[in-house]
């Protein structure tokens, strides 16, 4: 009887692992266009959309995480004593391979002489 229970547990455990594999398959970014406004999201290897196309920019998956970004209106700090001004801010965060946002999109990308510096692969 004990052998039967071990085999049943093993089979059920393996079924559980295979059932979640598609959810953690490598994510691939995709883009959609709506009136010249491009948005991106992620789908798995089978083409199933895991993250809808709601982001301004989507990075590659690295170590189980992928960078996502949004453009939000906000205050930009003026340089060398210049006044602060209203403009779009490039905000970034990270999702995991299951498509769950694990680092909120609230971290502003740094500017270097007016050029946005993206955060890169997750490490």
End-to-end gap: 47 Å
Specify the number of helices: 1
Strand content: over 45%
Chain-averaged pLDDT: 76
The structure class reads alpha+beta
Percentage of helical residues? 10-25%
What is the ordering of alpha helices and beta strands? HEEEEEEEEE
Please specify the SSE layout and strand pairing:
Elements: H1 2-20, E1 28-34, E2 37-43, E3 49-55, E4 57-62, E5 65-76, E6 85-96, E7 101-108, E8 111-112, E9 115-116
Antiparallel strand pairs: 1-2, 2-3, 4-5, 5-6, 6-7, 8-9
Throw out a few tags for this protein.
elongated, alpha+beta, 123 residues, 4-stranded antiparallel β-sheet
Summarize the entry for a quick read.
The protein has one helix spanning 2-20, and strands spanning 28-34, 37-43, 49-55, 57-62, 65-76, 85-96, 101-108, 111-112, 115-116.
Task: Provide a descriptive summary of the structure in words.
This protein is an alpha+beta fold and 123 residues long. It is 15% helix and 51% strand. It contains one helix and nine strands; from the N terminus they run αβββββββββ. Strand 2 and strand 3 form a beta hairpin.
